[in-house]
Amino acid sequence: MTKKKTFLDVVSTNRFIHTLLAIILGFLFGAIFLAIMGLSVGQAYGRLINSVTTLKGFSYVIVYSIPYIMTGLSVAFSFKTGVFNIGCEGQFVMGSMAAAVVGILLGDLPGIVLIPLCFLAAMAAGALWGAIVGFLKTKWGINEVLSMIMFNWIAFYLSNFIAGIPAIHNDGSAEATKSISEHASTLLSKDLIKNMGLAPTANWGILVAIAMTVVIWIIIEKTTLGYELKAVGANRYSAEYGGINVNRSILLALAISGAMAGLGGALQLMGMGSRISVFSSQEGFGFAGIVVALMGCSNPFGVLVAGIFYGALTYGGSKLNLVGAPTQLISVIVGTVVFFISISVIFENLKRIKTRAQRNAEAAAMRRAEEKEAQK
Amino acid sequence: MAKQYVDMQTPVIEMRNIVKKFGDFVANDGINLTVHKGEIHAILGENGAGKSTLMNQLYGLLKPTSGDILVNGKKIEMNNPRDAINAGIGMVHQHFMLVQPFTVTENIVLGTEPRKGVALDMVAARKNVVEISERYGLSIDPDAKIEDISVGMQQRVEILKALYRGADILILDEPTSSLTPQEIVELIEIMHNLVKDGKSIILITHKLKEIKESADFCTIIRLGKYIDTVDVENVTENDLASMMVGRKVTFKVDKPQQKPGEVVLDVQDLHCLDYRGVEIVKGLNLQVRRGEIVGIAGIDGNGQTELVEVITGLRKGTAGHAFVNGADVFNKPPRFGFNHGVSSIPADRQKHGLVLDFSIEDNLILQNYGKMPYSRKGILQRDAIFKHATESIEDFDIRPRNSEKRAAGTLSGGNQQKVIIAREVLNDKDLLIAVNPTRGLDVGAIEYVHKYIVDQRNKGKAVLLVSFELDEIMSLSDIIDVIFDGQIVASIPGDQANENELGLMMAGGGKKND
Fold first, then answer.
1. Closest C-alpha to B450, from B430, B434, B429, B431
2. In the predicted model, what is the mean pLDDT of chain A?
3. What is the pLDDT of residue B251?
4. How many Å lie between the alpha carbon of B222 and the closest alpha carbon of chain A?
5. Helices A300-318 and A55-80, interaxial angle, to 10°?
6. A228 to B375: CB separation less than 8 angstroms, yes or no
7. C-beta atoms of B61 and A364 within 8 A
8. Quick check: B24 and A227 CB within 8 A?
9. Comparing C-alpha atoms, which of A291, A321, A215 is closest to residue A19?
10. A238/B56 CB distance under 8 A
């Protein structure tokens, strides 16, 4: 079939192109806002680009992107398996806190033991936070979105509570935990940072994030586990008919998704903060994960790229006030991008109306071609 | 009845030499159609023959590449459905377009709301709806919410909506595909009321029986080409079928005599509840032996669906046993039954039978994805999965070819069913349960499905067939078990059954024979 593809065809079927279009539109809207405010578009966007293209700037971008990649993976995995992990935020906080507790209390252990232990504790905490919600859903049919939002707040206050426990709490005046043991830090060596001129928080957490990207991709695409989870996500009835344990699958999907968010919390703590403050509001890493998953088309490698892009926007955005542009410009851009990705439904429907009638005809033609073949 | 109301002097629709091309291929190739006032005109063709394309042109959704459309003798150019509606044409689609939480009246006036000043005049609207409903015997409650009424009623609402907008010519697209037998009878009556009043109806269908029962004329389309327009009175169902598929069709299934073997499925005193928690299967007993087809005849809602769900592990029962090869599958998960010899063609192929978003190759391993050679140590073996799909597509004539990676949802209904049959037949289990296996399929596909079911029997499998089509039960079954009110009330050898007697027992008129 040699049919010329229209613009609509491409945008509605190729999600990559569609996302790219949404991003371009995002920057366009940002530009309009800048123009309205009487600021130079070129200067602001120039600053944005300059600030992330130096080696130091880029190392900042990478550091910033690590938690976004992890929460993005978490949400993307949940999308693929038919649940919507809006509880990513809480799982992230739980992971962070678990890693902090281990990193403080077992601080004497050597790094080679302590670091994996912190990771495991964080993943377990995140997985537990996801699995509890899954349990409530499968056991009593409690809507997972509602319980997740509540679990986000439970995690938030639990974290603040734990930060106040004497064994964990900073002895000084800061409303925060002690710093984790240096053995649990994922920072690159001071010399390396200095010699290469990297960001002072440059750490190797990105390697873990990349590894997890591959792991999640393998689970989704290559394993029977992924097959089960996707089947349940796509049609739980036929999955059940096919002999898949639906409840177990939902629990597992949420646990894996939660583990990714929890690990993200650990990576953020061990590479950036080294201690947990008593929060006055949610940090939003989990919610950013939803944006990243959307931009990454729920594909693990897409999420990796989208996470870095989001990191770049966040870091670059923080430099915008140097040219007099408001940092909130980034929110305008991101909001617009999300908006245009989300309305993909419109593109798809436009396309569907056009093709609905066409499909019958194509089926007929295909049969006819086959019939001809058969006659030969 | 036939042609009683047809006014042959007054053609209301004339489609002349309609050609519709999509790129290289011709979907409609010179089709002629004339419909008169007061006529029910059936358009018959297999899935994909070009029926819907033709009707979409009449309804303004598509523009013909060439050819003329005349409405009431005047040539008309239709650019969108609004033009068609203004010309007095209404269409009832296969899938209804109703707002579920709205009432019947609200749905009907949607888009053409009567006003009194700025306010909505629902009183006038309701009165109008009631009036039309009464005139054509639709018996619709104007205040019922759509979500509370049956599919058959929803269809009447769609018909009423078209009439409310002044349609004189109604296009009904596969109107009976989701109706119960009783609702079909009522629909045919409504159609007769409409033509009596001078309306005309175009009926798109592939069900021969309904054409014989309701239509005056029938136009047959095959592979986009106009075959013929016939007076329905002068042709048999067999003639119509042959014209539709282009070869002789046999409705008789070739079934050699054979002695059944040992019992495979043994259901004992089974009880279960329906979705409302009311007992629907009430102490049912049933046996199926190797090499025989046991058909369950019954009116929908007498427990047959729930019975199958219990045997296949999708529903929990309250008491009883269901032995398959000696293992009690009662209240065990689906995989337990599968491992002990249960395979099934589920009633709802899109809900249970297939994961529509999954590719064909992935659907073909729905129960076996965890087994060699499709996976090893938890890793899917894509080459083996692909090879299996390629072979199945070839062996089971799934079309289009080379569709291993295509989503199952893009296939036609008949080919979706072929995917399920391929999977279940290749599972090679001792028991095959088939529930309404030919629902919504066209003649060619029905023939195909029946052949595979009988093949399984001939190979010595036990087959349990549940169907609402009495013809299907009667032509395939070695033994017919009649289900009524959650029990088997009669068990009759297939060759001794007659339709009237069965019908009576299905309605509860039979005596229990155990």
1. B434
2. 86
3. 64
4. 9
5. 140
6. no
7. no
8. no
9. A291
10. no
CA distance B357 to chain A (A): 7
Cis peptide before A326 (omega within 30 of 0): no
CA B137 to chain centroid, in Å, comes to 25
- Where do runs of H (alpha helix) occur along A106-223? 111-140, 144-164, 190-196, 205-222
Pairing of strands B217-222, B66-71: unpaired
* pLDDT computed for residue B513 by the predictor: 46
Q: How far apart are CA B404 and CA B387, in angstroms?
A: 9
Contact of A7 with chain B, judged by CB distance below 8 Å, is answered with: no
Smallest Cβ–Cβ distance between A243 and the set B26, B49, B338 belongs to B338
Chain B residue whose CA is closest to A219: B379
Q: What's the length of chain B?
A: 514
- Tokens coding B24: 């290289």
The rounded distance, in Å, linking the Cα atoms of A313 and A320 is 10
Q: Compute the nearest-CA separation of B385 from chain A (Å).
A: 12
ipTM for the predicted complex: 0.78
Helices (H), B110-247: 122-135, 151-164, 181-196, 208-214, 237-245
Query: How far B418 CA lies from chain A's nearest CA (Å)?
Result: 16
Residue in A with minimal Cα distance to B359: A231
Q: What is the mean pLDDT of residues B207-219?
A: 90
pLDDT band of B512, cuts 50, 70, 90? very low
Phi, psi torsion values for B154, nearest 5 degrees: -60, -35
Taking a contact as any Cβ pair under 8 Å apart, which residues of chain B between 26 and 55 contact chain A?
26-27, 47-53
Selecting from A3, A237, A368 the residue whose C-beta is nearest the C-beta of B23 gives: A3
In chain B, the largest separation of any two C-alpha atoms, in whole Å, equals 78
Contact criterion met (CB < 8 Å) for B312 and A241: yes
**Contacting residues for B335 by C-beta, under 8 A, at least 6 apart:** A243, B313, B367
Q: Does A228 touch chain B (CB under 8 A)?
A: yes
Nearest to A177 by CA among A161, A197, A193: A161
Tokens of A43: 């200067």
What's the rounded Cα separation, in Å, for the pair A77 and A256? 8
Provide the percentage of residues in chain A whose pLDDT is more than 70: 88
Structure tokens at A362: 């194509």
Name the burial class of residue B131, with classes exposed (0-12), middle (13-18) and buried (19+) by CB atoms within 10 angstroms of its CB.
Answer: exposed
Closest-CA residue of A relative to B224 is A364
Q: Which of residues 294-333 of B touch A (CB under 8 A)?
A: 312, 314, 333
| Helices and strands in chain A, H and E counts | 16, 0
Q: Report the predicted TM-score, pTM, of the whole model to 2 decimal places.
A: 0.76
Q: How far apart are CA A159 and CA A269, in angstroms?
A: 13
Q: Which of B20, B53, B334 sits opposite A241 (nearest CB)?
A: B334
One DSSP character per residue, B226-251 reads EEEEEEGGG--HHHHHHHHHTS----
Report pLDDT digits (tens) over B429-454: 999 999 989 877 777 788 888 999 99
Pick the residue with more confidence: A9 or A300?
A: A300
CA distance A291 to chain B (A): 24
CB atoms within 10 A of CB A291: 23
Render A252-313 in DSSP notation, one character per residue.
HHHHHHHHHHHHHHHHHIIIIISS-BPPSS---HHHHHHHHHHHTTT-HHHHHHHHHHHHHH
Residue B413 in contact with partner chain A when CB distance is under 8 A: no
pLDDT higher than threshold 90 for residue A152: yes
Max Cα-Cα span within chain A:
89
Indicate if the alpha-carbon torsion angle B485, B488, B491, B497 is positive or negative. positive
Quick check: A227 contacting B, CB < 8 Å?
yes
